[in-house]
Design brief:
Elements lengths: L1 H12 L19 H6 L22 H4 L11 E7 L4 H9 L6 H12 L8 E4 L4 H7 L3 H13 L8 E3 L11 H8 L3 E3 L7 E9 L3 H12 L4 E9 L7
Parallel strand pairs: 1-6, 2-5, 5-6
Antiparallel strand pairs: 3-4
Helix pairs in contact: 5-7, 8-9
The structure holds zinc ion (2 copies).
Length: 239
């Protein structure tokens, strides 16, 4: 792909600079130490949904009241950031194709966060509907999942699951409307012979997209489902 060559040439020919402040940077991630420290990291949230809790690392009240496997349909959420400045800006740049090198940064940071976790049997990026993927030219979830799978040494599966229903832009809808829209949005086109899967996406807003995909996998016999995302919208953060 053209952007890969562009990124490669840029990487080889230009001094490495921080994506945010443009200062020279030797971290290999294009993120200087000062900017990295200032990012809106989301740490110690609910292990199931990643929202902040009063007791760090403990399930939030809502997740404690829900039985395992139901709403959210995943067992664990791993996220790096709150969806807040400057991450929201970076994600938008990335999503609209102006910062595909950011996938490498997000993947490297997720791999760091996941270093001590039990690896899943496979990583599945959230599929885009084929029409949307054609318009965009790429699937942002796959762009993150590919280097992440390589770094973690996990198989990447982006063929088994497909999005069969296009859904209107979700950003203006309530959580309930999103969930209704997404019912039956995904399907498996071949059986999955795995028990533990990690789903990858760029942003978790209400979680309804990841839940719809998790429901599809759960119905196919997957027992442990994780959601790995770069950023999580907190209640009160505009999207
Ligand atoms: Zn910087
Ligand atoms: Zn929770």
């Amino acid at each position: 792909m053209v952007y890969r060559w562009g990124a490669y040439l840029q990487h080889r020919l230009l001094p490495s600079r921080c994506t945010l402040c443009l200062a020279p940077d030797s971290s290999g991630l294009n993120l200087c130490r000062d900017c990295r420290a200032d990012l809106p990291w989301l740490i110690g949230g609910c292990p199931r949904c990643a929202l902040p809790t009063s007791a760090p690392g403990q399930p939030c009240g809502a997740c404690q009241r829900r039985p395992s496997g139901f709403d959210p349909g995943f067992d664990r959420t791993v996220t790096l950031f709150q969806y807040a400045p400057p991450i929201d800006h970076l994600v938008q740049r990335f999503k609209f194709g102006q910062g595909l090198h950011l996938a490498r940064l997000f993947a490297a940071l997720l791999a760091e966060r996941l270093r001590d976790s039990t690896p899943p049997d496979c990583i599945i990026p959230v599929p885009l509907h084929p029409n949307r993927q054609r318009q965009r030219g790429f699937n942002q979830a796959l762009e993150i999942a590919r280097p992440l799978a390589r770094q973690l040494g996990c198989p990447l599966d982006y063929h088994s699951c497909q999005r069969i229903r296009a859904t209107p832009a979700q950003s203006q809808l309530s959580a309930a409307q999103r969930r209704r829209n997404l019912r039956g949005a995904f399907t498996l086109i071949r059986p999955l012979a795995v028990k533990h899967v990690a789903l990858v996406d760029d942003v978790m807003t209400t979680g309804s997209t990841l839940e719809a995909l998790a429901d599809t996998l759960r119905a196919a016999g997957v027992e442990m489902i994780e959601a790995w995302v770069c950023a999580r919208t907190l209640p009160g953060n505009a999207r």
